[in-house]
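Quick start: read one record
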Amino acid sequence: MPDARPTQTPADPQVLRYLEHVRVEKRLAARTLTLYTLDLERLAQFAAGVNVPLLQLTSAHIRRFVAQMHSAGRSGRGIALILSGWRGFFTWAGRQGLIAHNPVQDVRAPKAPKPLPKALGVDDAVRLAEFDNTGADPWLEARDAAMVELLYGCGLRVGELAGLDAVANADTHRLGRGWVDLQAGEAHVFGKGSKRRSVPVGAAAIAALQAWLAIRATPFGGDGAARLDAALFVGQRGARLTAQSIWLRLRQRSQQAGLTTPVHPHMLRHSFASHLLQSSGDLRAVQELLGHANITTTQVYTRLDFQHLAKVYDAAHPRARRKNSGD
């Protein structure tokens, strides 16, 4: 459990001077001033614990205090805020000629571990991809089904999906948009940094795209043709779908499919990478398909893969479900 916040008023005269300084000259809000007071009282308690006067603390002392807070359960973000308050106090003390060096200057809070990307389980991903909303508008249903197939089947970013054009032409290359070559079974996209890459399009995605392209222009026949954008995925007014619109449609579709977790486009990209890595174990191939410049970006999916293996082990191995009785 995190350590409790102190509630006493700092007794150190220099701390009291500093708090008066920030209250009057910096006009800090009452809440901020209270937090400064509590954090400096915490510092005073740490200093008393090592029998060192407050203004004689060194960077080694501060790092020791950081380690104590971290081991007690305080988050890296919380420690960073505390260090910011301490740093301000010692900066002021230096300006007053009370210290020669700010002991907090080069001390940083522990980095918070990067959260793992959220990926669907294989069953949920397939359930979403195969979902058929028979009661929906056939035009919207065909479009949304094709979007899901491309996001999950090709690992596209939402911006890459939104940027696809219905056919490849000179403008496609000039504007940096992508396109799908159904005959070759490839999607050509322009990712981060306008880097072009080609990814294979599976049979299910090709079938969904063919179904969508067969009716894509239906609401815009005749006089409405002028309103139809060159985009592969358009809205009911004929304009290219925005990334936000795709987010909203996918979230709605995942709920209709009965998934307990609201799905967003990047979750399908994560699912694509995780499931491909689970099946192939080929990290370099996954890196190429995702368009990652550095393989360390792709390596996060090995952690997801290990989580999957650990769950399989916990569920299936007889020694994982009961404690060893000893030798």
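The longest strand covers residues 186-190.
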